[in-house]
Amino acid sequence: MISVPRSDRLHIALFGRRNVGKSSLINALTGQEVAVVSPVAGTTTDPVYKSMELLPLGPVVFIDTPGLDDDSVLGPLRIEKTKTILRKTDLALLVSTPETPWGPMEEELTELFLKRKIPYIIVLNKSDRWEGTRQQDLAQNKALTTAPLVKTSALTGAGIKDLFNALVQHGKVEAGQRPLLDGLVQAGDLVLLVTPLDQAAPKGRLILPQQQVLRAILDRDAVAVVSKVSELEQTLGKLAFPPTLVITDSQVFAQVKAVLPEVVPLTSFSIIFARYKGNLSRFYQAVRAIQNLNDGDRVLVAEGCTHHRQEDDIGTVQIPKLLQKRTGKQLDFDHVSGGFFTADLSNYKMVIHCGACMLNQRELEYRQEFADERGVPMINYGVLLAYLHGILERALMPFADELTITKEVAR
After folding, report:
1. Degrees (nearest 5) of the Cα angle 260, 212, 176?
2. How far apart are the C-alpha atoms of 378 and 117, rounded to whole Å?
3. 278 pLDDT band (50/70/90 cuts)?
C-alpha cells in the first residue's frame, strides 16, 4: 500500500457556520495550505477530505464541512449532507467566533454529538478580534460542560498549539480501534491466504482487504503464505506443518472447503472485516432472518465503495442467485453503493452488507444501528456466503470465544 487507506484513518471533522475559519484552522493545524480559504462566506460548498500524517496521532483525515447557515438555494441539501458526516466522525471540532451568535444550530449539533457519543472540542476562533466574556458564557451552557473549549486565532497562530494538544489527547482515545487480527494470529503462526485474482482485482495489485490482512500478519511477526485457489492443494502439500489459520475470499468458500482438511481453521477476509469494523455478533444473529424470507420480499444489498460491475459480480449476481437457490424463494433485490446509506428501510426484510473495507468503523456501526433500530436484520457478505455454502459454523469457529455459535443458526 502506498498510503494508509482513508477507512483506517482517524476522522476529524470541523463543523460551524460560514466564514468562522474552519478551513483556516485546518491549514494552521497542519502547517500547510491544504484547504482553500477566502473572505467570501460559503467558499466550501461540499465536504472536503484532506488526508494527513499528524504526529503523534499518525494518519488522520480532516473533513472540512460547509457552513451550517448556508442560505443559498442548495443550502438545505448542503446542511443535510454536512450532518451525514457525523456518521463517520471520530472527533469533532465545533468552530465559533466572537462575531457569530451561539444559537439553535450549535445546540442541535452538540446534542447530536452527545447522542452519538462523538467526542468534540469547541473552538472559539478569531479570538484576536474581540476580548470579553464569551468564552465563559459558552462554558456555562449545560450541553457543553463535558467538552473542552479552546480559544484560537488561525490568523496569528494564538492558541493553535493548545488546540493541537487537545486534539491529540482526545484523538488517541478514539484511535484505539481493535487490531485487525486481534486474538486470531500470534507471533510465529503460519497463515495461508487464498486470494483469487479475478476481474475485480486491480491489475498488478491485490484488493484492499487482502493487502491489509497481509500487512497485519507481518506486523504480528507471523508468517504469511499466499496462494490462488487453483494452487491451494499444491501449496498445502509443500507445507511442513498445517497452517494455523486459512483466510479466503468469501466467494470461493466452496472450492477451499473441498480441498482444506476439516481440522484446519478457516474464515474469510469479509468476516474478519465485519468484526474489525462492526458488530460480528449482530451479523451472525441476522442469519435467522434468512429462514423467514418469503416470495416477493425485498432485500437491500449495500456496498461501501463504488466499482465497475463485472459479469459475475458478487453483490449483484452471485449473492442473489445463491440466496434464492438456498431459500427457494423469488426475492426482489435493490442495490446501493458508496459512502452514504439509504435512509428508508421500511420496504426491506433484510440488508446484506459488504465487508466494508472502504468504510471506517463509525460508519459501519452507524449502519448496523440504523438497521437494528428499524427492525431490519443486517448480515455481512462473508457470514452470508459461509451460511449459503454450508460452512458457517466452521468459518466462525476462530471467533468462538466471542460468539455463542449454535448449530440451529449455522445449519
Report:
1. 120
2. 22
3. very high
